[in-house]
Amino acid sequence: MIDFLLNEAGSNVVIRDSSVLLNMEFINSKDLDILPKVVDKLVSTEDIDTAIVYGIKDEVVYIVGRGVVNGELLDIINTHFSNLGKVKETNGFTLAMVPLGIAVMLSRENLLRLVDDIMIKVFFPGKTPGFSTAFDRLNEIKQLVTTQV
Q1: How would DSSP label each residue in 55-77?
Q2: pLDDT band, residue 103 (cuts 50/70/90)
């Protein structure tokens, strides 16, 4: 099952140096249970020392990671997501649950693109020229909403 998921991931995988970012897209409860196994499978690969796998279920992005990306993974996830959702570390995994809020009003395709843009900017900062649109636009919208309240 895990090998099948990895094979089907195709363009949903971003690899930089020895780090892997895998978008499982829209997942169900069974998929949610295997996210840590997918992370383990990726980290057990010889050239991978950090794996982050994420998917969307019930208007929440679930993030599971293990390893180091330019510093401690827990610190990176805490910095970017703890004010939006829940972050914890357990059994060597860093876990996060981030509610999508108003973003769920987007089409499925645009929602996936937005989540991808954010994840790539968070985990591969400075290494992704051209990935700016959705994340920057979300910040603009957030600023507009907060200044008008």
Answers
A1: EEETTEEEEEEESBSSSBHHHHH
A2: confident
